[in-house]
Amino acid sequence: MSPDSPEGGHDAGRSAVPLDTTDRALIAGLLRDGRISIRALADRVHISRANAYTRIGRLMSEGVIRGFAPRLHPQRAGLGTSAYVMITIEQNTWRTVSRELSQIPYVEHFSLVGGDFDILALARTPDNDTLRQVVLEHIQEVPGVRSTRTWLVFDEAPGRGVEWE
């Protein structure tokens, strides 16, 4: 995430990229199986391989598809402690704080939000001691951070998400 531009690199205020039914079917296929071959995906969507390559390349260049990565099971990967950290920052320090947060190990994701706090961060660590270090020795030391509040995650389940087809 770039602190100087919205996630995905698009200009602020830019509307969503128009997606037709073929684009949506390609996205659905890649979300189901990111390792699917272009040939198999093209066959499934009923388009040529060349068309599939072109469309996926366009979706990537427009920032709709940001990359391909495995989805890990945090506990099985050795990250048995997860927590959401609510962070309150000084006014006008988002860019500085976000640059610093992006460098802290175990901080998986963070967002600028509206409400009772300013930033919501997800930290995944091997244990409670490491989580304590992340929050107390790293996040709270970031210039501009005024306070934190940590909520432990006891269990997680996927949501339904968007149906792309």
What does this structure look like?
The chain has 165 residues and is of the alpha+beta class. The chain has five helices and four strands, in the order H-H-H-E-H-E-E-H-E. A four-stranded antiparallel sheet has the order 2-3-1-4. Helix 1 (21-32) packs across helix 2 (38-45) and helix 2 packs across helix 3 (49-61). 18% of the residues are buried. Mean pLDDT is 91; it is low at 1-10.
Summarize the model shown.
With 165 residues, the chain is of the alpha+beta class.
Keywords:
165 residues; alpha+beta; four-stranded antiparallel β-sheet; 5 helices; 32% helix; disordered N terminus
**Rounded Rg:** 19 Å
Strand order of the largest sheet: 2-3-1-4
The largest β sheet comes out as: 4 strands, antiparallel
Structure summary, number of beta strands: 4
Helix-strand pattern: HHHEHEEHE
Strand fraction:
15-25%
Q: Give the overall form.
A: elongated
Unreliable segments (pLDDT under 50, ≥5 consecutive)? 1-10
State the end-to-end distance: 27 Å
* Tally of individual helices: 5
Helix content: 25-40%
Mean pLDDT: 91
* Helix vs. strand class: alpha+beta
Task: Note the topology.
Elements: H1 21-32, H2 38-45, H3 49-61, E1 81-89, H4 94-101, E2 107-112, E3 119-125, H5 128-138, E4 145-153
Antiparallel strand pairs: 1-3, 1-4, 2-3
Helix pairs in contact: 1-2, 2-3
